[in-house]
Amino acid sequence: MKLAKESLKAWKAEYEKINAAEREELKVYLPTLTVEQSIKSYFELCRLAIALSGSSDEPVELQGLRAREQASLIAKWQRLAERLSHVA
Known about the structure:
Strand content: under 5%
Number of domains: 2
Number of strands: 0
Largest sheet: none
Mean pLDDT: 84
Radius of gyration: 19 Å
């Protein structure tokens, strides 16, 4: 058990280092994106989250409700992206 705790702590410490490095990369990268690129990136993240969030232990009715809500949000963000693309 002690070995497992030490391994977990070591794993956590390495992930914290990786996350900190990724945050620093994003601080440099994100300001260079256009609004359109930023919104497209957001949509890609939403699609990934939706794909990964499917759960077999959730009732089908709730899965459908969640999927419709996500689709509605994506549509709203896409309309916003279209409007903003005419601004630039």
